[in-house]
Structures are given as C-alpha cells and as structure tokens.
Design a protein that fits this description.
266 residues, Collagenase (Catalytic Domain), 2 domains, 10 helices, globular
Length: 266
C-alpha cells in the first residue's frame, strides 16, 4: 500500500492538536506466554455485546476498503484511516488496498456526524435485535461491526465514527485505532487491567504492544478461522513461546510505536 503519510504530518498535528496517545508500557504482567493466551481469549473470542465465547473470526480474503465522508477535512480523516490500515497490513500480512468501486468494498469506514449517525448506522450496519445499537447511541463514541460466515471467515465489516462526537471527547485517534482494529476480528472491549486500546479504563490513540501481539497471534497461519477455545489454546501457547524466545514480546511496545497513529502526533 502506498501511503503519503509524511506529507500529512503537519496538517494532522495542526488539526488534532495534543491528542492523547498511548504512553509507555503500564506493566509487564501481560508479557508472559500464559498471560498472552488469556488476553487473546478475552479480546478475540469474547464480545462486548454477547455472553457467549465465539470461535476465531478473521479475514481470509483481501480487504478492499472504502471511506464515506460526511464531514469536512477529508484529507485529514483519510490520512488517519490509511495510516492505521497501513500498520495493520504490515503486522498481519493482510492484503489491504482501497476499493476501486463501491461494490468491491468489503471494509467500510464512515466518517459521519452526530445528526447523521442514526441514518448512517441503519444504512451501513443495519438493524440489530440485541439492543447493541441502542447501547451504542447511549453509551459509546464509535462503533464497528463485522460479519463472518459459519466457518469463521470475516466477509464484511463497517465502522461508524461520528467525528464531532469523537472530537468532543478528545478521542478521534482512539476511535480510529480501536474500531478499525475491532474489524480485524478482535471483537471485545474489556474491563480487565490490560494495556490495550480495547480497555474501558485506558485512553489510547494508537496500538499498544499488547495489541500488536494480539494481531500477530490472530493472523498467524496456525490460527484458523472457526477454531474453538479448546483447540486454540495449545496453538496460541506455542506461538506465544516463539514470540517470547525471538524477543518480539519484549520489544512489542517499540514495534507498535514505530509506525501507525503514534507516529503522526506532535
């Protein structure tokens, strides 16, 4: 993917100001292989809107993304999305490129505004029977959703980012980072004290080291869509041990901060 991120640095800094970004590692308890497995189960197999434990959901086909702009500053918002998608592509090895037509798009990011939010949500995410949409309008800033087939392969995903609401909360970067990463198959938000963009108790504007490792583990070819927790745990443990032995766990925070949204902040 060709990214013109450097040309946007100053513009982004001027518009976003002193946006909050993830700081240094908040602790090292998550750095053991066993804890990485537990974090993966928490973030990838559970869901904020469901009590069931899901099988693995992940992309097995190329991602072709489309941006829908309902607000101004299109270059700025496109830069945020493209920067994060570029980092995701490098971490996961996924083929991520812009869609050439609307019909080709299977990954849609809607940069909307408060007064269009309900209509856009209905158009791009459809109706919900579990009350999830209602909780979103009441409690959340942004929302992402994906649809997988019965084998666990993600077919389509969409994110709803009301820019005015996110900026009002000082969390536009966090919305982009969190929701676009949710769309990869890390479906859960968590109340556990984990240093992740998915933690309810942490404000982050970029991937953490733990998020970096979760994506590496999810898109390891040994992790197959549709795998149950029981089948997955020994495979995850083996992958985590390899990441530890190769030094990737210890350097994950640095690796996560080298590219992506962390690199565009003043």
């Amino acid at each position: 993917m060709k990214l013109m991120v450097q040309a946007w640095q100053l513009l982004l800094a001027l518009v976003l100001g002193s946006a909050a970004v993830a700081g240094a590692d908040t602790g090292s308890t998550w750095k053991s292989p066993g804890q990485l497995v537990e974090a993966f189960v928490e973030l990838a197999l559970k869901s904020d809107y469901s009590t069931r434990v899901h099988p693995v959901r992940k992309w097995t086909t190329p991602i072709r993304y489309m941006l829908v702009h309902r607000v101004g500053e299109e270059e700025v918002h496109a830069a945020l999305v493209i920067t994060h998608l570029g980092q995701i592509a490098r971490i996961t090895g996924l083929d991520i490129e812009p869609a050439t037509t609307a019909g080709e798009a299977n990954y849609v990011v809607v940069l909307t505004r408060e007064d269009m939010l309900e209509a856009d949500t209905l158009q791009f995410l459809g109706s919900a029977r579990d009350g999830g949409r209602e909780r979103f309008f009441r409690d959340s800033i942004c929302l992402a959703s994906f649809r997988a087939n019965t084998k666990g392969s993600i077919l389509r995903a969409a994110a709803m980012i009301p820019v005015d609401r996110a900026r009002g909360k000082g969390d536009l970067l966090g919305c982009v980072a969190e929701e676009l990463t949710h769309m990869l198959g890390l479906s859960n938000d968590t109340h556990l004290p984990l240093p992740t963009i998915f933690s309810h108790g942490t404000v982050r504007g970029a991937l953490s080291g733990l998020d970096y490792l979760m994506l590496k583990m999810l898109y390891d070819p040994r992790v197959k869509p549709g795998m149950t927790e029981a089948a997955l745990r020994p495979i995850l443990h083996g992958i985590a041990i390899e990441l530890e032995q190769s030094g990737v766990i210890e350097t994950a925070e640095r690796l996560a901060a080298e590219t992506g949204l962390a690199g565009i902040n003043p």
